[in-house]
Design goal:
The chain is mostly helical. Helices cover 82% and strands 0% of the residues.
């Protein structure tokens, strides 16, 4: 199991490094680039199917052992994480803030650093804004979600969905690229038209195993919006009060663009989602 965890960690880190090299200097990312990278993602999916369960059990066993033998394990864990942040990441974060002053993400990073300097600050936040009823609800929902994710992961791996999804997305992205579709951050317009043309001309349809994941994701989003939407809006309001007018305007612009692109994706999905009832 230790070997499994090491294999996943090494491969995941390798992918992150290669992704940074592949996309780091690109002003835009195209669907053609994404299509070329899908075999790497598929490999990670296959690796996860092979090792993830063993890796999780190994880590869970070690954590439970530490918690049984040390009543202060969680406290010390956060303390060590704080030390690691100061040694490895604090200078990088401060440099990011300095280089992105008067921007939305710069202000958000600065706000986070100013308000969460230690584990005690995190505890104080939860004590003020997360009551026991909300904590119990989140805990219960998290357990249900964990079981559902485990079930979906088993079905995904058993059906060989990593390869099926890779084949589908490679063909789709390849057919979407071209003409006026030159930026994968933009689906509305030319890219959506190319996607519609792909499906209508007999292109490969969404695999049912992938559609299962999409349907569960949509249901989860709807549930979170209904169950926690009011509380999330409250927290967003608290953050908004601390941001400049310029940052708030940028946040509103960003949210509007995300909603616009999401609506286009939803329209395309509704028009071309597969009929999996006969399975």
């Amino acid at each position: 199991a230790v070997v499994s965890t090491q294999s996943m960690g090494q491969q995941g880190l390798c992918y992150l490094i290669r992704s940074a090299e592949r996309y780091g200097d690109s002003p835009t990312v195209t669907y053609d680039q994404l299509a070329g990278d899908l075999p790497n993602i598929s490999h990670l999916g296959e690796l996860s199917c092979k090792h993830a369960v063993k890796c999780y059990k190994q880590i869970a066993k070690a954590v439970k052992k530490c918690m049984r033998s040390n009543d202060n394990f969680i406290e010390e864990l956060f303390g060590n994480a704080q030390i690691l942040y100061r040694v490895k990441a604090q200078d990088i974060v401060n440099e990011f803030i300095a280089n992105h002053q008067n921007t939305l993400f710069g202000e958000l990073a600065n706000l986070a650093v100013a308000n969460f300097r230690s584990i005690n600050d995190v505890k104080a936040f939860f004590a003020e804004y997360v009551d026991r009823d909300l904590e119990a609800q989140v805990s219960s929902d998290a357990q249900v979600a964990a079981r559902e994710v485990q079930k979906l992961a088993h079905q995904w791996c058993k059906s060989g969905c990593s390869q099926d999804s890779t084949d589908f997305l490679q063909e789709l992205f390849g057919n979407m690229h071209g003409g006026q579709c030159v930026d994968a951050a933009q689906f509305c317009g030319a890219c959506q038209e190319n996607a519609n043309r792909h499906f209508k001309s007999g292109g490969q349809q969404i695999p049912c195993c992938l559609d299962d994941i999409l349907q569960k994701g949509i249901a989860a989003y709807d549930y979170v919006s209904a169950a926690y939407g009011a509380r999330i809006d409250e927290w967003v309001g608290l953050v908004s009060q601390e941001l400049s007018d310029e940052a708030n305007a940028k946040a509103a612009e960003f949210a509007a663009e995300v909603n616009r692109q999401s609506a286009c994706i939803a329209d395309a999905y509704d028009e071309h989602n597969p009929d999996c009832s006969s399975r």
